[in-house]
Specification:
The chain is an alpha+beta fold. The chain has two domains: 4-109, Alpha-Beta Barrel (N-terminal domain of MutM-like DNA repair proteins); 112-248, Helicase, Ruva Protein, domain 3. The chain has seven helices and ten strands. The protein has helices at residues 4-14, 34-37, 106-109, 123-132, 138-141, 153-162, 176-198; strands at residues 24-26, 44-48, 51-55, 60-64, 70-73, 81-87, 90-95, 98-102, 222-225, 232-235. The strands form three sheets. The chain has a four-stranded antiparallel sheet with strand order 1-6-7-5. A four-stranded antiparallel sheet has the order 2-3-4-8, covered by helices on one side. The protein starts with a helix and ends in a 14-residue tail after the last strand.
Length: 249
């Protein structure tokens, strides 16, 4: 599933069509008013977490690539088309994704202060929300899009490794200064990830995600599905600290 930096990168690629009229709109997206969209100018493209928004004067389309979504700019894939938009200078096509209409203000729909890549991101609010469910595993909490919109499984694993925090640590057991550093690391890593996408070099920078050996201790990494989300965790038992209550240390 694409994470926030990948969606921002997609936005940057698609912005070449901003200001252009839609010459043709088609696909099999449910309840999509293709005839209404055709002939309208694309006024803006916005992102929120893992979602992409194509904004037109009368309607906005929300696109989420889900687990298996793909897109092609100025090309086509051998898949069933979910949404295709043709412009004077090219086209963008989406496959196996979730496409929905939005007719309300995006400011009402999205809380920009939770998006780790938005200028309005509020780390204090993120900390408050982490503490609102103190008994969660930190590996689950970091994936909560209501707290850290845009953080996905890759970012989660890399940030926990950077901060040397074990994924099974309970939120309430992690000291506040460390929680703040984890939040900041989610932001910093997301922007680094975006730079790597621009350079087409993101695969060269993973330290633990989908890797086999800890780059610090040179021992095998563990890979397990941990927490309620059931997402894979890649971690080192030696250098990532498991935060527990003092009473059981």
């Amino acid at each position: 599933m694409p994470e926030g930096p990948q969606i921002v990168f997609l936005k940057e690629q698609a912005e070449q069509f901003t200001g252009q009229l839609v010459l043709e709109a088609n696909g099999n997206a449910k309840d999509m008013p293709f005839n209404e969209i055709a002939g309208q100018p694309l006024t803006a493209i916005k992102t929120y977490g893992k979602a992409l928004f194509f904004c037109f004067p009368s309607v906005t389309i929300r696109i989420h690539l889900m687990l298996f979504g793909k897109y092609a700019i100025n090309g086509e894939l051998n898949r069933e088309l979910r949404l295709g938009l043709a412009f004077d200078t090219g086209e963008i096509n989406f496959y196996a994704c979730d496409c929905r209409l939005v007719r309300c203000s995006l400011n009402k729909l999205n809380d920009w202060s939770t998006d780790v890549m938005h200028a309005s991101f509020d780390p204090d609010k993120a900390l408050e929300k982490l503490y609102s469910k103190p008994n969660r595993l930190i590996c689950d909490a970091l994936l909560d899009q209501a707290i850290l919109a845009g953080v996905g499984n890759g970012i989660k694993n890399e940030v926990l490794f950077r901060r040397q925090v074990h994924p099974e640590s309970i939120v309430s057991n992690i000291p506040e200064p460390e929680l703040r550093k984890l939040i900041a690391a989610c932001v910093d890593f997301s922007f680094e990830y975006l730079d790597w996408k621009r350079e087409r070099a993101e695969g060269q920078h993973w330290q633990v995600y989908r890797q086999k050996e800890c780059p610090r201790d040179r021992i095998p990494l563990r890979k397990e599905k941990i927490g309620k989300t059931g997402r894979s965790c890649y971690f080192c038992d030696k250098c990532q600290k498991l935060y527990v209550h003092d009473s059981i240390m």
